[in-house]
Amino acid sequence: MSSGLNMSRRIRRSPFTSKVEQHGVRGFSVVNHMLLPKAFKRSVEEDYWHLREHVQIWDVATQRQVEIKGPDAAKLVQWMTPRDLTRTQIGQCLYVPLVDGQGGMINDPVLLKLAEDHFWFSIADSDVLLWATGLAEGKGFNVDICEPDVAPLAIQGPKAEDLLANLFGDDIRAIGFFKFAWVDFAGTQQLIARSGYSRQGGFEIYLRGGSATGLADQLWDAVWAAGQAFNIAPGCPNLIERIEGGLLSYGNEFTLADNPLECGLADYCHLDGDFEFIGKQALLNVRQNGIRRDMRGVLYGTEPLPTVTIPLPVMAGKQKVGQITSGIWSPRLNRNVGLSMIERDHWASGTKVSVGLQTGHKVPGEISLLPFS
Amino acid sequence: MSSGLNMSRRIRRSPFTSKVEQHGVRGFSVVNHMLLPKAFKRSVEEDYWHLREHVQIWDVATQRQVEIKGPDAAKLVQWMTPRDLTRTQIGQCLYVPLVDGQGGMINDPVLLKLAEDHFWFSIADSDVLLWATGLAEGKGFNVDICEPDVAPLAIQGPKAEDLLANLFGDDIRAIGFFKFAWVDFAGTQQLIARSGYSRQGGFEIYLRGGSATGLADQLWDAVWAAGQAFNIAPGCPNLIERIEGGLLSYGNEFTLADNPLECGLADYCHLDGDFEFIGKQALLNVRQNGIRRDMRGVLYGTEPLPTVTIPLPVMAGKQKVGQITSGIWSPRLNRNVGLSMIERDHWASGTKVSVGLQTGHKVPGEISLLPFS
Fold first, then answer.
1. B37/B44 Cα distance (integer angstroms)
2. Which CATH fold topology does A292-373 show?
3. Given an 8 Å threshold on Cβ–Cβ distance, is B326 in contact with A9?
4. Which of A173, A342, B322, B341 has the fewest CB atoms within 10 Å distance of its CB?
5. pLDDT confidence of B212, banded at 50, 70, 90?
6. What angle do the packed helices A128-139 and B128-139 form, to 10 degrees?
7. Which CATH topology does A65-146 take?
8. How far apart are the CA of B20 and the nearest CA of chain A, in angstroms?
């Protein structure tokens, strides 16, 4: 299902929007008040196969950076997440749940540690800038918080490393998973991380200074030119690949109403660590009372069903035990694949369920661990 | 300019979305992670004339409510805005700028005072929920903050009062401008305010409990049925009418980078009041250093130009003195009308300027006070 999107200054263009328009972008979503390309000329399925085999260039500038800098920066950042940051190194990226005082999910950004007193949160769709600024204002922390002029560009797919080694030199091959380094580009220093919103490998270049100069066009063109030898295509986070890979989306799979222990993020919560964070008592209570649900995959139907835009109930008999919040046909598994938080008594892999469709019909399904194999 | 909008759970449907779909909505914007209808079958111009003469029903559920309740609620709310709230009465609506510690605009909501310890911010497009919660968490305020299940429905136009008097009784005629009262609907108590995002008069019904029950459909149908005698039409905030009326839009006319003294909101800032608020020192500094710009209208071109989606520079000779952030052809004034912050030396009504178009051409224009007459 798609509809027209009315444009205005409030729905911000990214430094790469002109480039994706030149490539014939057909549809957008809006994330962090900014355009996220969601469809090009080819189908999601064609893009899926291409992403698994070749390399794609994605405008993911909607992953806005919230910069926290200053004497109290490390203290504030640790206070914002249940993940233990005490041993985090400069040059590391960490996936961190952010929770409020009730343990509800505020966001699930990637944290980049640039210096002992300098961090970026690379955020999903909520105003972490306001959350962090409010906390600092209330506590009187000595920090500077802003959204800097940084626009991530993702190069994803198995050929990404070869492409970027051609462009920036072989040193980038040494960058570990969820680590970052700096490269020279057009007289500027730019951050490059081995990360991205796919399971096919790749990098993200966090372009600084791209909004006012021609630097964004230059970077896009340079990647595009180097990519010709690797069958590069314009793309975007691919819904089939994302769901198969078990990559969650804030606002889709979970919201402020959910806590990280029950939405698949328990591994990133260190409740017994010797550090304070917002929502600690709430999460301790959740753990003590017992986890009632967890994130799972659902395989359902044997024919292609419409892509999920409104959650579909997951039923065990007449009992609702979950809801598929993202779901699409997988041409590789020949099943529809969905993501759902599932009640404890039904979350075992292989449990039989049914899925209620928009039409009112039901189709049989079964629970799967994530990622889908 | 419009493009496809890809739907997902993250882009929330409102309790009225099904109804606007039945009415043939053609385009949306996204505000507060929720769908805002932006176009129906008729043109913006046809809707404009209709709005000035008859009555329209608008799904403005994207005006999410941020509820602040509890012993410290009044203290927190006053701390969040430079507007003096010391004499605010229960039953009053107030337009309030919210600013950060640097005096930057966080949002420009309407504040509703429901009780001495109970407030709603009816917000524009930013996560005030996170801002308020962060402040309260940092300060240790004793408040409960949430986004309640409240979905505003606007009834706008000169016939709105007669329509709603037919539906709810003549008592609603006594509701003053920016005041609210309570009406019975289908066994529930609902808040109705004389307010709305147009200059044509009208009301907003803040429907409680509409997300899970059939209440939203019932309310829409009741208004629609009562509206048949008044030539009711489905609509949405009308860009021509909004710009002519000088109604500003957060994210369009101003952002976090702007302060309220320079973006037309000085009347809502009481810097000399005997109360504390975030950003007070910053705004005092702005005032002391002198206001450099203010919000103005720009009349430009004598032929219809494309609706502004990317800001257009306002030039005095070769000097940029502003940018039109919202602009459209006015069929009533036979000029294009735009909104722009304008530098002090050029903000006098009647000042001649030129406006740079996307094509590279320039057209002559002149500064106007707001609202356009």
1. 12
2. Elongation Factor Tu (Ef-tu); domain 3 (2.40.30)
3. yes
4. A173
5. confident
6. 20
7. Alpha-Beta Plaits (3.30.70)
8. 13
